Amino acid sequence: DTAVSQTPKYLVTQMGNDKSIKCEQNLGHDTMYWYKQDSKKFLKIMFSYNNKELIINETVPNRFSPKSPDKAHLNLHINSLELGDSAVYFCASSQELAPSYEQYFGPGTRLTVT
Amino acid sequence: GQNIDQPTEMTATEGAIVQINCTYQTSGFNGLFWYQQHAGEAPTFLSYNVLDGLEEKGRFSSFLSRSKGYSYLLLKELQMKDSASYLCAVDQTGANNLFFGTGTRLTVIP
To answer: Do B55 and B49 meet the contact criterion of CB atoms below 8 Å apart?
Structure first.
C-alpha cells in the first residue's frame, strides 16, 4: 500500500494553462506539505496544512492555491502556468506539526511547462 | 540570512567510510534532519538530531554541534546502493518547517 501518493506522475502543459496535482496519504497523519524541487535539486517548502488548516505559506505566487478537503488530501492548483514553474513537486505528510516528526514524501510530480 | 552549506559532490569506494558535512545559519533551530534521495525518487528520512552528540542507526550515524552550527552524516561499510543525494535540513520554527540545503551527491565506486 502506498503511504503518500500523487497524481499525475508527469504533467506536460503549455504556458498559460491551469493544472492541478492531487495528493493523498493513508498514514492517518495530521500534517501535509507541498515542496518544489527545481532543476538544481533544491527542495523548498511551499505550504503546510495541519488538520485542513493552512499553517505555512512561503513566498509563493498566488497563482498557486492549495486545497485540503480533508486531513488525508492536499491538492495543489496552479493557474496561468509559467516556464519557471517547471519542476518536480513533492507532497509529504508527518504525524504531527511538532518538531522531530519525520516527513514521508510522495513519489513526486514532474511538471514541464512549454 | 539563512544558509545551509553542503559539499556538492563526493565520491567514495565500496566498503569505505564517508562523512558528509553540513553547516547551517538559520533564523531558528528546532532540530536537524538528514534525508536520502535516489535519482528520480522521493526523499526518505535517515536521521534527526536536536541535542549535541552522535546518533547511531545501523551503518548510518549523524552528529550535531549546535554551538558550531555543524552536523555530519557518517556512512560506514559503503554499498553501491548508497549512491544518492543526501539532504541536510533544519526545522527553523518547530512547526516542521524544513529549510533544506542543496544536497550532496554521493557516488560509490567499486
So the answer is: yes
